[in-house]
Design a protein that fits this description.
- Helices cover 53% and strands 0% of the residues.
- With 89 residues, it is mostly helical.
- It has one domain.
- α1 (3-21) packs across α3 (49-72).
- The radius of gyration is 20 Å and the shape is elongated.
- The relative contact order is 0.15.
- The model has no long low-confidence stretch (mean pLDDT 87).
Length: 89
């Protein structure tokens, strides 16, 4: 794996995890009871983007490291996934 490939893999992993983390601990303005004029009621009351970015970075580094390990150390084949012994070489 090249450095560019590793960086692209990390960026894709980071954004996928980020979109999974965004809805956690979400409070809309309607739930909080303070709707700012000109915004929809479903807009977030408190963004917490910095905290969510830190959580995302930690999770993404773990997932990225696992994927890199699989790619760099030979990967997995279909025979490795055969848990019932149906496929035999």
């Amino acid at each position: 794996m090249t450095i560019t490939g590793a960086l692209v893999l990390f960026a894709v992993t980071w954004f996928m995890v980020f979109f999974c983390v965004l809805p956690l601990n979400f409070t809309s303005q309607a739930d909080a009871g303070t709707v700012v004029p000109g915004t929809p009621r479903s807009a977030p009351a408190d963004h917490l983007i910095g905290k969510k970015a830190k959580i995302t970075s930690v999770i993404a580094i773990v997932i990225w490291a696992a994927i890199c390990a699989v790619v760099l150390w030979g990967g997995i084949s279909v025979n490795d996934l055969d848990v019932f012994g149906v496929m035999r070489p």
